[in-house]
Amino acid sequence: MSLSSGSSGNCYYIEAGRKAILIDSGIPVRTIQKNLRENGLSFDKVMGLLITHDHTDHIRSAGSIGELYHIPVYATKAVHGGMERNYGMSKKLTNASRRYIERDVTIQIPGTFFSVTPFMVPHDSTDNVGYYIEIGEEGEVPVKFCVVTDCGFVTEDIKYYLSKADHVVIESNHDLDMLMNGPYPIYLKKRVRGEGGHLSNLECSQLIRSIYHDSLKHVFLCHLSHENNTPDIAYRLAEKTLTELGARIGVDGVVLSVLMRNQPSLVYVFDNGTPFPENGQLTINF
Q1: How many CB atoms lie within 10 A of CB 274?
Q2: What's the CATH class of domain 2-277?
Q3: What is the pLDDT of residues 40-62, one digit of tens each?
Q4: Domain ranges within the chain, ordered by starting residue
Q5: pTM value?
Q6: Do the beta carbons of residue 49 and residue 13 sit within 8 Å?
Q7: At what angle do helices 201-211 and 156-164 cross, to 10 degrees?
């Protein structure tokens, strides 16, 4: 479940075997708890918080989650340093709740079925990683999940990890024409388009094309810009790309979903078949 995805805040929840993890915590803890509770999920199951990078929209409540709820917070050494310096995260982490991770080194979240590998994603933060996650008990065929957000440009590492996953979350931040003709000042347009910025809809679709494989089950589009994109534009371009690749979109093919900025997504249930949202809908209404 995505609780929020965009520059106002980012947070994703994944549950397996009655244990769960969060990826990023850029919204208040009470909002996280409320949204989970309203969808039949539980904050009490969270065994770890994975941080992608140290911008406020990804870490706002990380200190509270680590210190008040005693949930380990996983990040690279550089990201932990950036979090310490970021005034947007008012409560700071102590050594008791910090957990250090390294790029391309796989860890097992204690007490869970989550095997996590962080990898480098270029962005203008202190550091930034994506996460490739295999979920399942030993001996089972794992559910393979990967998230790439706040990405300035696509690397071979990004392609490698996304192409291994059956369920992927990929940034589709902006429509280039809307950005260049929109209200942003020139310096900010350059930042968004630069190597430390964000992927456009077109770049996202090109990435989908490069990592597509027959077992791909779900594509989530994340971190859409409010000013420079619309869910419909992002969805239609990704849909066109998948169709050109021969993918069937829907119940018997690839499920394509847009993750919204300020509202939680549906709850999606993953297995080794096609993922279905619990209420039976196949795409987010927007």
Answers
A1: 15
A2: alpha beta
A3: 999 999 999 999 999 999 999 99
A4: 2-277
A5: 0.94
A6: no
A7: 60
